[in-house]
Design a protein that fits this description.
The protein is α/β, with parallel strands linked by helices. It is built from 10 helices and 15 strands. It folds into 2 domains: 120 residues, 3-Layer(aba) Sandwich (Rossmann fold), CATH 3.40.50; 195 residues, Dihydrodipicolinate Reductase, domain 2 (2-Layer Sandwich). The strands form 2 sheets. The chain has a 9-stranded mixed β-sheet. Bound molecules: nicotinamide-adenine-dinucleotide. Nicotinamide-adenine-dinucleotide binds next to loops. Nicotinamide-adenine-dinucleotide (NAD) binds next to loops.
Length: 353
């Protein structure tokens, strides 16, 4: 099998997880180029990881290099432009979540992939966790029965990443588009990727940065606190799917709650499952209620899941495995996010088409 040439666009925090994933596949890929609009940052990254060529303009990178695969790891507002540039330049792309700022942008990206006959995978890393793998098998093999309801909470007491994440012009929104996408996609995936039909949502911005920490961002992702806090700090929604499956989701950057929560429950006709920490299954066997825990560590492991995601991308490009998180899935997620924001704005339920 031919070794694939890889480029990485955006050399901030998450690009390190992509790089680790590629470095774990030395017989399949070489990372030959990287790009960031911050010249100092990309130079350091290239030196650290021994990447032979670095750029500050992704169009130039695509012109000079013959790349088979590109990771797009920029802030959200640059996903569309960088992804389309990479696809038009002949590469297959894995673009970080959220796929784009909104569904219209996501559709343009998918169109570019189809036009060029290239793969566009979305960085829904939760699809690659051990927990998701176990629960998906439970669902596929009939253990859960029909999954008809899910409840997902991704709540942080004081967990805005800061920097561009809190600036709507760069992020497209707050915890809903940043954290909510992970658990909305995870539950949709485990329920068999049904088509969403409507959403009713609310958003609040009561707390924002005015927290006990005195407005200091706990993480301040890019060291740049000049960005204004223009996103919601909490979002809640009810999303309905065409097969009747319904999801209740709650997500926050700031919330008056004792501790952070990351709980996902799926309820089926034969069993319910919890996916947070280790997987748990609740059922009714031979007249007894049973609580079952698969043996061993079945929780979500960030670096293992990232390595599996990058391996999945390369396997999909090589035609070894089907793509597990397609551009189509990314578009559906952006349609759900758009509908929740629209519903929060109008106070009405919004149809998704
Ligand atoms: N899958 C996950 O669990 C996960 C976790 C964290 C972040 N993310 C996603 O990854 C993306 C990046 O987040 P991050 O935390 O690494 O942010 P970051 O700020 O650390 O890095 C983003 C980088 O993109 C660069 N950039 C912006 N526009 C560019 C352009 N046009 N061309 C080249 N470079 C450009 C910036 O200079 C910056 O260095 C976001 O979409 C975020 O939602 C995903």
């Amino acid at each position: 099998m031919k070794k694939l040439k890889v480029g990485i666009i955006g050399t901030g925090g998450i690009s390190h997880a992509h790089m680790d994933g590629y470095k774990a596949l030395p017989e399949l890929v070489d990372v030959v180029a990287c790009c960031d609009i911050d010249g100092e940052k990309v130079k350091k990254y290239a030196e650290k990881f021994s990447v032979p060529h670095y750029y500050t303009d992704c169009a130039e990178m695509m012109k000079n290099e013959e790349l088979d695969c590109v990771s797009v790891c920029t802030w959200n507002s640059a996903h569309k432009e960088c992804t389309i540039t990479a696809l038009n330049g002949g590469a297959n792309v894995i673009c970080e979540k959220p796929m784009a700022m909104n569904a219209a942008e996501a559709e343009e990206m998918l169109e570019a992939a189809n036009k060029n006959g290239k793969l566009l995978q979305v960085g829904f890393v939760r699809r690659f966790g051990k927990d998701a793998e176990i629960v998906q098998k439970f669902a596929k093999e009939g253990v859960t029965g029909d999954i008809y309801y899910a409840k997902a909470q991704y709540l942080r007491r004081d967990g805005c990443p800061g920097g561009w994440f809190k600036d709507k012009a760069f992020s497209g929104g707050g915890p809903l588009i940043d954290l909510g996408v992970h658990v909305i996609d995870l539950t949709r995936y485990l329920a068999g990727d049904p088509k969403p039909v409507s959403a009713f949502g609310v958003t609040f911005d009561n707390l924002g940065p005015n927290r006990a920490s005195g407005g200091q961002m706990v993480w301040n992702v890019d060291g740049n606190d000049k960005h204004p806090y223009t996103v919601e700090d909490f979002a809640g929604a009810l999303v309905k799917f065409e097969n009747g499956f319904t999801l209740q989701v709650e997500t926050s950057f700031n919330l008056n709650i004792r501790r952070d929560v990351g709980d996902v429950y799926l309820f089926g006709t034969k069993a319910g499952v919890k996916i947070s920490g280790n997987v748990e299954l609740y059922s009714d066997i031979a007249g007894s209620y049973v609580d079952i825990m698969p043996a061993g560590n079945t929780g979500f492991d960030f670096s293992k899941a990232f390595n599996a995601e990058i391996k999945g991308f390369i396997d999909a490009v090589n035609g070894v495995e089907p793509c597990r998180a397609s551009g189509e899935d990314g578009v559906w997620l952006m349609k759900i996010i758009d509908a929740i924001y629209e519903s929060a704005r109008t106070g009405k339920s919004v149809d998704i088409k």
